[in-house]
Amino acid sequence: MNKLKHIKAEVAKVVVGQEKMIDSFLIALLCEGHILIEGVPGLAKTTTVNALASALGLNFKRAQFTPDLLPSDILGAEIYDPQTNNFKIKKGPVFTNLLLADEINRAPAKVQSALLEVMQEKQVTLGDTTFKIDLPFFVMATQNPVEQEGVYQLPEAQLDRFMLKIIVDYNTKDEELEIARRISSGNFKKIQPVINKDELDEIKNAIRAVHVDEEVEKYMIELVDATRNPNQYGLESISEYIQFGVSPRVSIDMFKAVKAMAYMRDKDFVTPIDVAYIVNELMRHRIVLTYEAEAEGITTDEIIQKVLETVAIP
Asked: Sign (positive/negative) of CA torsion 69, 74, 92, 58?
């Protein structure tokens, strides 16, 4: 059993089901990306991140986003100390390895932008001093699809900074029965650290060495291009629904994510199956739909499915 399977086994001690969510967390973490996760409350999002941090031996912090939040509440600030007559630095919750940004769409744009800048630059400036964030640095931002009032939707340009967007659904009946039994009886085992930061870096290096055939590389680029030029791929039926196709960040993230996917399956080469497994999570938040698509209830997942069905598999 490789280290990643050990990690998943440890997380499974407290999280029942939700395998796609756990896989996505590991992929984003190993590829140094970030995740946006959408799902109703109570689907073990916080529990999963906490469990993952424990299994990896990493620091974990949670920030609850609210409409009155300020950038300094997330980043930190200079605080005046009357005893020494000097300013001292108080670091915010971003100074961690795994950060859960809970309900990010409830905070105003300036707070969202402050967090997204840290995600991109991996550094924070407080006063005249710039602080580097300790690596690995992984942000999981959640948004509640039920909330409509008092929320600030993330603009498309900011959504593009998230490597993956996960839609978390309810557990199956059997899984929910297991959850209720465990919680009611207090039957949760303690999670043990499985690897350290050095071993995590070794896994990242091993993932970079995973082979991607030239035909598979071309296939991934064609999937990306089909969202921008659907008519060239016989996708006239969906062209009126796409306002903007995915950005070049998708190509970069896809090349990294499929290698991680193959490694997690104990393979040293990538197949189109690895691409299909993760392509929705890579693209769904990066395709901008037209008004016609929204009026007809067309989703980005349906667009991606059409693209997958049409572009020739190598």
From this structure: positive
